[in-house]
Amino acid sequence: MRRGVFAGSAVAVLMLTAACGSGDNSAGKQDSVQPVGDSKQAGSGYDGYGGGSGAVPAADTIKSGPAGELKVKPTTELGATVTDSAGFTLYRFDKDTPKPPKSNCEGDCAAVWPAVSADDASAGEGIDKTLLGSVERADGTKQLTLAGWPVYRYAKDTKPGDTLGEGVGGTWHVLAPDGKPAKAGGGAGAGSGADPSAGGGAGADAGEAGGQEKAQADPIGVNRDTKLGAILTDAQGRTLYRFDKDSAWPMKTNCLDACLNTWKPAKAVDKELVKGIPAELVGTFKRPDGTEQLTIDCWPLYTFTGDKEPGDINGQGNKGVWFAVSDKGKKVTTTG
User: Fold this and answer.
1) CA 287: distance to chain centroid?
2) How many Å apart are CA 336 and CA 331, to the nearest integer?
3) According to the UniProt entry, which residue ranges have a biased composition of type Gly residues (predicted)?
4) Distance separating alpha carbons of residues 111 and 134, to the nearest angstrom
5) Residues 214-249: tens digit of each pLDDT
6) Cα separation values, 334 from 28, 78, 148, Å
C-alpha cells in the first residue's frame, strides 16, 4: 500500500519533478500564511471560521435537538472529543462559566452556535454521567452542561465528525470528555475515562470502531488548537517543521550531522492514508543516508526535539529559519 509514496516508475518521477519544479516551490520563494485567528472576526468571537467565506448555515440545517447518548470520538488532531448520538461535534465557550453554569451566547451568537438541549441527554461509554447537568437559558429552555460548561453545536459543521468550530475567535473549543478543551495528544483516555469501544469493548459498532482505529492511524494530522492557526503534525501529534536552508527544487536537505541531533527527519508516509490535506502535497525525499523523508509541497519536514508534548510549537521561528507548516502546505511565519 506504499505505492502512493514510493512509486519507482519513470512516469512517477517525472510527475514529481514537474510538481516540485514549479515557481511556487522554488527555494527563494517566501510563501507564508497568516494565523487563522487573523481571518476570524475579532470582537464577539461567535463566527468567523477561517476556512473560507460565505454565509453561515442556518442553525436548523444541522441537528439542533437533544443530544441523545454522548459519545467519545478519538481523533489525531484533538485527542478524545465528545459528540452527540448522531456524531456531531460538541463545543464549549470560554466566555461562559461552569460555576455556576451560565451561558453568554444569546441572540446572533446562538444562531451560529445552537445550544444543545438537556432533554434526553445521557452519558455513553467513556463519559462520567455525574458530569452531565443543565442550565436554564434566557428563553427558559434547559441547555446541556458537561462539567458545568454549557454545550453547543456549530452551524458550519454540516456533517458528523466536522470540527470546524475549533479555535474560532480564540474562545470556542471542542469538548473533551472531562469538559475541558480537547487537545492534541489527549488520546482515547483523555477526560474521565477511556472509550472502551476503541479497544473493541462491548456494544461497540464494528464500523464505528473501525473509523476510530483509522483516525488514530492517520499519518499526518492537523492541529487547529494553536496560536499559529492550523498546522501539520505527525501521527503522534508532534508539530512538523520545514527548514529555510533546505530547498524544494531541487529537493535538497541542509540539515546534516549535528543538525540531526535537534531536528529529526519526519518519516515518509503512505499518501493514500492521508486525509485533511490535499494528497498531492504529500511526497518523499531520499536523504544522503538512503532513508526516506516526508515532504510537503516538496519541502522536507522535521520534528523538533525541543517539543516535549504533542501540540508544542517550541521550534517555531528557531534561529529565523525553522517554521511550522499550514494545512495548505505553506510556511507559517508568525511566531504568535
Assistant:
1) 29
2) 14
3) 184-210
4) 20
5) 334 468 988 888 889 999 999 888 999 999 999 998
6) 19, 22, 35
* Cβ-contact 284, 256 below 8 angstroms: no
Name residues whose C-beta falls within 8 Å of residue 43's C-beta, 6 or more positions apart in sequence. Answer: none
- Among 307, 325, 100, 92, smallest CA distance to 228 is for 325
Choose among 325, 213, 219, 329: nearest CA to 272. 219
3-state helix, strand and coil shares in percent for the chain, rounded to the nearest 5? 20, 25, 55
Q: What is the spatial distance between Cα 50 and Cα 164, in angstroms, rounded to a whole number?
A: 9
Whole-angstrom Cα distance, residue 76 to residue 186? 9
Q: pLDDT tens for residues 150-191? A: 999 999 998 999 998 988 888 899 999 999 999 865 544 333
Domain edges within the chain: 3-35+227-324, 59-212
A 10 A CB-CB count for 154 gives 27
